[in-house]
Design a protein that fits this description.
Order of helices and strands: HHHHHHHHHHHHHHHHHHHHHH
Radius of gyration: 22 Å
Mean pLDDT: 83
Number of domains: 1
Shape: globular
Helix content: over 70%
Oligomer: single chain
Strand content: under 5%
Structural class: mainly alpha
Length: 437
């Protein structure tokens, strides 16, 4: 049987079920069960499927996922990060477009504490948007700045990066650390856009009289409300970098540090703990169900010879490695407009990664580019998840046009950042090159 026959049947069945509206994990389950039964020896294949499902989640490297999610939930629900936002507000001072810069700075810091793009976006939108509206900011400009919350998908700790690393079979520690500099590049692109926009059109963010804070007050607030979060960031990120901890161990230390910090601010209560745990379980179960389907899907493609046949087919075109990467990343940009991010990885990585290996492309660099691309997908109209989050938290009177326009402007900044990392791979690979594991 030619490789394209099982490939077409498997992928066609998956697309057909998704068009019918089946949840992505259920569509994968049906395709996997049917495909393994008919292509992999009937009941014996189904027994192997059960082993695959268990082994795909019974993996030590996936343990950081629920721990990172729990840490972000606790910090977000306790409200302690609002103290850091107020402190950053004092330091930025009376700069035109200051609240937009505050949103970007807060998103960058909170991204290193949360790992949840939706949670960071919701926090920024609910706290800063009403004040931006009141002070006369143009709506799309204000909304766009709050979409910088998607940096939480890229800057560690990112639960999504752990899932991506497991699916792409790259070092999770290196993938987490590799997201730091590209994430800062994106934040820099956002800042440049805000500064340039205000320069070209001062009315985009109206000035207002600013209360002046003495330097001593700024320093005290920084030491009390920002520096402690820096300690948590050290526990989560730099202990991995220096090789003192695995991602799992650093995730646990970061969560313990977060709980201790919340206790010090006297914000720890059952009203914070219980919803955080419940939401962590919901998100983790959803991610792991999708992960099991993706693993079985990849094995099915490999067993039927579809993966190998597709690799040989692509290589026969004699595409340069860079052109192959450009094609894959362009496809991600299109899929990001219509599909959820983990679902995109499920469909594509079992197909793309064998090609990446055959073409001898750096898998870590490709994974970081994919991570940046998924950050774009989070806010890509019409189905980006953070679009719906923003619609839920934005003040009354905000139109979907305002939300889409705000997202599109920052998507252009994301694409610029993606191109920078594409043409200068060292940005992504510099920090991981110092790591042993």
């Amino acid at each position: 049987m030619e490789w394209w026959v099982p490939f077409g049947i498997i992928l066609g069945g998956l697309v057909f079920l998704m068009i019918l509206g089946f949840p992505i994990f259920l569509a994968f389950t049906i395709v996997n069960v049917a495909g393994i039964y008919f292509f992999w020896g009937g009941m014996d294949g189904l027994v192997q499927l059960s082993h695959t499902i268990f082994s795909s989640v019974a993996n030590f490297v996936l343990l950081p996922v629920p721990v990172f999610i729990l840490m972000g939930e606790l910090i977000a629900r306790s409200g302690v990060f609002t103290y850091a936002i107020e402190t950053l507000d004092k330091w930025i001072g009376g700069v035109r477009g200051r609240l937009s810069l505050l949103a970007i700075g807060s998103a960058t810091i909170f991204a290193a504490l949360s790992g949840s793009a939706q949670g960071t976006t919701a926090m920024l939108g609910s706290i800063l948007l009403p004040e931006m509206y009141r002070r006369g900011y143009k709506r799309y400009f204000a909304i766009g700045a709050c979409f910088s919350g998607a940096l939480a998908m890229i800057i560690p700790p990112s639960a999504f990066a752990v899932i991506l690393g497991a699916l792409a079979e790259v070092s999770i520690g290196k993938l987490l650390i590799g997201g730091i500099l590209p994430g800062l590049v994106l934040a820099g692109c956002y800042v440049c856009y805000v500064v340039l926009s205000v320069k070209l059109d001062p009315n985009i963010a109206n000035d207002y009289s600013e209360t002046r804070y003495p330097l001593s007050d700024k320093i005290t607030s920084f030491l009390k409300y920002v520096l402690p979060f820096g300690g948590i960031m050290f526990l989560v990120t730099w202990l991995i970098f220096f090789g003192f901890c695995t991602p799992t161990e650093s995730a646990v230390l970061g969560t313990v540090g977060s709980i201790f910090l919340i206790m010090c601010y006297r914000k720890l209560s059952w009203e914070v703990i219980i919803p955080s745990i419940v939401n962590t379980i919901k998100i983790t179960v959803m991610m792991f169900m999708i992960l099991t389907g993706a693993t079985a899907f990849g094995q099915l493609l490999a067993y039927t010879g579809a993966s190998q046949g597709l690799c040989e087919f692509v290589v026969s075109f004699k595409l340069s490695p860079l052109l192959a990467v450009i094609t894959m990343q362009a496809l991600y940009l299109v899929l990001g407009c219509f599909m959820e991010q983990v679902s995109i990885l499920m469909v594509t990585l079992p197909i793309f990664m064998p090609i990446i290996k055959v073409l001898e492309i750096d898998a870590l660099w490709f994974a970081i580019l994919t991570l940046l691309n998924m950050g774009i997908a989070m806010k890509s109209p019409p189905f980006g998840l953070t679009l719906f989050v923003m619609q839920g938290v934005a003040p009354k009177g905000t139109s979907i046009r305002d939300i889409y326009l705000g997202a599109l402007v920052f998507i252009l900044c994301d694409i610029v950042g993606l191109l920078i990392v594409f043409f200068f791979p060292k940005i992504a690979l510099f920090l991981p090159s110092f790591m042993k594991y």
